[in-house]
Structure formats: structure tokens, C-alpha cells
Amino acid sequence: MELRQLRYFLTVAEERRFSAAARRLHIAAPSLSQQIRALERDLRVTLFERTPRGAELTPAGHVLAERARVILAEAERARLDVRSAGPHPREQLALRICTMAERVLDGPLRTVGLAISGAEVFATSSPGDDAVEAVRQARADAAVVWSRPREHRDLEGVVLGSVLFGLVLPLGHPLADRAQILVAGLAHEPVVMFPLSPFAGIWQRTVDHLLPSGARQGQVVVESDLINSPEAMVRAVAAGSGVAPGILGVAEHMGVRGIVVRPLDPPLSLDLEVVWRRPARPAVRSLVDFLVEAVDDPKVLISAPRRPPGAEVVRASGPPSRSRSPS
């Protein structure tokens, strides 16, 4: 079992299609399939079931996915530690990106690795609140996370901006032909959600927005597949499990057939923050400033955070330039 095979395996698990995973890895699809088959032969298990919906993890595949993430994270940390001890070290920075945020910040994240002078930035995905814990435990230098619950506000943080969510509905749903969906009309709809843990910061706020009168027993359907989230939620909607929140500009481009995405009235927006430990090293402050400025990229699906008139931007270093709301 090789680290390369584990990376390939996790990419297929996330994309759920070998062709999409091959494009992401910049290798030929037949080569990717050969590597996965070699891994399955080595482990003497079947890792994926090929279905019309894509490549679905088997029970053995789910076990390997959990272990593979830990193994690759430890291997990356070892690589960083060894490189930093070399004769010409560049400072190593570990950045965690919570689930779904990588789709919002896709453009800037492609360049962040070389954006900080004198440092190398290694960005990895991390589900929900786990990204905060990685920073708190010094396993990461900074993290981009969704709105934090109060118990996570011991870390320094800056709100990057707000991300607008809409509603994902199955084709043929009575509301699917509406230009926008009134929240008041969702009282009796089953709502597909991501797990409460590790998304405590945004789970209850999202449910309360979609079901302001409260959820009936069994009305919230939890899609537990974190590895393939948010595609797993969208696929559950297409299969008829209910309706679901989805990032406008992202959910409709996941390649899942049988769904439509509509804006909500009133709108649902959730904040993204960057967090770090105090005191921050100069390279960490530069990384935070890069992320703050990255919101100006027109390809980024974030609007500037709400703030009082005349307020100044909160930056990790240097003079303030434009307003940002501190956490």
C-alpha cells in the first residue's frame, strides 16, 4: 500500500467518479483504475461498488477512508518537519479548509501555496469543527471555517465574508418552477442536512432558517456521508429524500442530474472566517492577510461582511485597509 495509492483512493471517494477523479489528479482514467485495483488486491477487499450513481464506497472503503486521511496527514506533517530542518529551509505553513469552503475559495487556494514570501503553504481539507481543533492543537497554523460556536472563540479570527445559500429541490417538485422559494412554504418539507457534528457552528442556524417554526420529529434527514459532502446531500435530493441547502453558484454545477437550485426568501447566508492562534508568526499573519484580500477576487463566491459605517478592516498585520468584522 503506497501513499500515492491512498491519495488516489481518497480522490475517487470524494469525486465519486473515476473520470472526475482522474481529471483532478491529472492522470489517465485507465491508470487510475489500475492503481485502485492494485490497492484492492493488496488489501484483499473491494473498496468501491460501481453503480449508475457513481463509485460508492463499500464498508471496507469507508474504514480505509478514515484511516487514509490520518495516514496522509501524518505523512505530510513528517515531510514538513524534515524539510524545515534542511540547509535552506522555507517556513512551512499548514492551512486547513473546512468542507465546502474549498469550493467557495477555489481560485485563491490554487495559488496560496506560493503566495507567502519565504514560506510554503500546504492546504488540506478538514470537516467542520475539526479544522478549528487542528489549529488549537497546533496541528495547523490557520484554518478557514464556517461560523464558529461560542466555545470555539478562544482563537483569533477574522470574518472573510458571507456565502449565500439557496435551496436544492428535485425536478418535478411543486416548488421547482418558482423563481425563489419562500421559507414559509417549507414547513412540511423533509430537509436533508449534513451531520450536526462536526458542523455545530452552522447546523442549527441553517435548520432554524429553513424551518423557523421548528422541525417535526423525523423531518430533518441527516446525510452522514462526510467524505462526499456536499455532493451526497445533493444526490439524496435527486433521489427524493427531501430538499437541502446548497451554496448558490456551486450546488447547480456538481454534475448531479434531477435537481434544481433556487434562491431563498428571506435569503440564507453563512459567514466564513479565518482563525489562528495567538501570537501569530509573521508568515501566519501574511497568510491571513492573503485570505482577507482574496475575497476581492471576482471568482470567489463571498460577499463583504456586514459592518458598521466607517469601520476599518481587521488585518493580521500592517495598517487597516478595508473593513472586516473580527470574530
Radius of gyration: 21 Å
Percentage of residues in strands: 15-25%
Give the averaged pLDDT, no decimals: 83
Fraction in helix: 25-40%
Largest sheet: 7 strands, mixed
Class from helix and strand fractions = alpha/beta
Shape: globular
N-end to C-end Cα span? 43 Å
Listing every helix as H and every strand as E from the N terminus to the C terminus, the arrangement reads HHHEEHEHHEHEEEEHEHEEEEH
Spans of at least 5 consecutive residues with low confidence:
306-313, 318-327
Q: Give the number of helices.
A: 10
Tell me what the structure shows:
This protein is α/β, with parallel strands linked by helices. Helix content is 34%, strand content 22%. Strands 3, 4, 5, 6, 10, 11 and 13 form a seven-stranded mixed beta sheet that branches. Strands 1-2 form a two-stranded antiparallel sheet. The chain has a two-stranded parallel sheet with strand order 7-12. The radius of gyration is 21 Å and the shape is globular. The termini are far apart. The C terminus is likely disordered.
Short summary:
The protein is of the alpha/beta class and 327 residues long. The protein has ten helices and 13 strands.
Key terms for this structure?
327 residues; alpha/beta; 7-stranded mixed sheet; two-stranded antiparallel ribbon; globular; disordered C terminus
Q: What's the topology here?
A:
Blueprint: H1 3-15, H2 18-25, H3 29-43, E1 48-51, E2 54-57, H4 59-84, E3 91-98, H5 101-104, H6 106-111, E4 119-126, H7 130-136, E5 142-146, E6 156-170, E7 181-182, E8 191-193, H8 200-210, E9 220-222, H9 231-238, E10 244-247, E11 259-262, E12 264-265, E13 268-276, H10 282-294
Helix pairs in contact: 1-2, 1-3, 1-4
